[in-house]
Amino acid sequence: MKLSSAFIFSIAGAATVFFSGCKPAGSAGGDTIKIGEFASLTGTEATFGISSHEGTLLAIEEINAAGGVLGKKLELLTEDDQSKAGESATVVNKLVSRDNVIAILGEVASSRSLEAAPICQQNKIPMISPSSTNPDVTKTGDYIFRVCFIDPFQGTVMANFATHTLKAKRVAVFTDVKSDYSKGLAKFFKEQFQANGGEIAVELDYNGNDKDFKAQLTSIKAANPDGVFVPGYYTAAALICVQAKQLGLTVPLFGGDGWESAKLTEIGGDAVEGNYFSTHYSPEVATDVSKKFVENFAKRWPGQKLDALAACGYDSALVLAEAIKRAGTTDGAKVREAIAATKNFEAVTGKISINENRDASKSAVILKVEGGKFKYLETVEP
Ligand code: PHE
Q1: Hey, whose CA ends up nearest to atom 4 of ligand 1?
Q2: Residue with CA nearest ligand 1 atom 7
Q3: Residue of 138, 181, 316, 348 with the most ligand 1 atoms within 8 Å of its CB, for mutation
Q4: I need a surface site. Which of 6, 50, 109, 144 has the fewest CB within 10 A?
């Protein structure tokens, strides 16, 4: 199975860095620059953490191969938050207080970034989320950044897609109430879809790790919508597609970046075919930076599916390294200023400029599930 080998690979990578993280504390002025990473390497969103980590580690290795930063090598200390609430705070506290990292990369899931951000803010340790899209993440404070777009934009993109491409007039919205990401994206989608003259046929909820969605899907089917917006993560999204199909619900289902995982088609099979989601990157958009990344990623992680998570992870490490270089120091306040000053940085996922809210204003791509693959449909500019 592809995923288990990926898992072993990642854990092997993580084990190496855990090991080097066991050096005596207080080595901030040591021979490496320590960067912390927290990611869901195991648990319900394991593919998010693994992909993001693979991209991040690739960037760190490339930077080191090219001589490092400020004459030192970067050392990535990776902690697994197990996709569990409460664990992000624990591991980020550890990275900050025990390991003395000078900056933090992570997380993918907005709820986990929101959990760790106050710790980074209080300790004046710059944090860059590769791919958390809930607007509140960076509102935590001036040390918290992201290198991706936010959900008011992503919600608008999918609402316009529903109105103009799917020609949907009435859409059902099915939200994970345990996820800040899902709740936010549902809200922003609804606002724009209604502004487009669309009607929300029915709104229903589920709880994070639910496995049985039949009761809600029965109500959705009864409302007879033209489509169903599912702003959730891949496991639930795939099961929702499967059960919708079983119930004879034949309208398109569509979602946001949370759908992006090789597991979506593995779990969803036929039932996810012909459905759509928005995300940050497609390898089919072949800029020079992206082409090189696709090549190097394939060499470093053979057999692994390259996705937006890996690309965003890679970009987060590059933006940080570049900022440390410009700052000329690893001092938190100076690195913070340098990250905030990032402009037109040519990254894999597009040009990154950090705006006044410490977010990146970037385009989204819309993908269609076809033949078990994610086919690029279009790019939407902000
Ligand atoms: N944007 C999602 C969140 O904020 C995480 C995610 C990013 C999932 C990219 C998949 C791909 O929770």
Answers
A1: 132
A2: 131
A3: 181
A4: 6
**Which residues line ligand 1 at a C-beta cut-off of 6 Å?**
48, 108-110, 131-134, 181, 257-258, 260, 279-280, 308-309
Q: Can you tell me the distance from the alpha carbon of 350 to that of 295, in angstroms, rounded to the nearest whole number?
A: 17
With b meaning 16 or more CB within 10 Å and e meaning fewer, what string describes 144-158?
A: bbbbbbbbbbbbbbb
- CA–CA dist 351, 361 (Å, integer): 9
Q: What is the pTM of this model?
A: 0.92
- Would you place residue 291 in the very low, low, confident or very high pLDDT band (cuts 50, 70, 90)? very high
Instruction: Mark whether 49 and 139 lie in a shared domain.
Output: yes
Q: Give a yes or no: residue 355 inside a domain.
A: yes
121 and 191 co-located in one domain: no
So what's the pLDDT on residue 29? 60
- Residue 198 belongs to what domain range? 151-279
Residue 169, pLDDT > 80, answer: yes
Closest residue by CA, ligand 1 atom 8: 258
Q: Is 366 exposed, middle or buried (0-12, 13-18, 19+ CB in 10 A)?
A: buried
Q: What is the DSSP string of 170-209?
A: EEEEEEETT-HHHHHHHHHHHHHHHHTT-EEEEEEEE-TT
Expressed in angstroms, the distance from the first to the final Cα of the chain is 38
Protein residue whose Cα sits closest to atom 10 of ligand 1: 258
pLDDT, one tens digit per residue, over 199-250 is 999 999 999 989 999 999 999 999 999 999 999 999 999 999 999 999 999 9
pLDDT of 79-136, one tens digit each? 999 999 999 999 999 999 999 999 999 999 999 999 999 999 999 999 999 999 999 9
CA 143 to chain centre: 19
Q: Are residues 128 and 162 in the same domain?
A: no
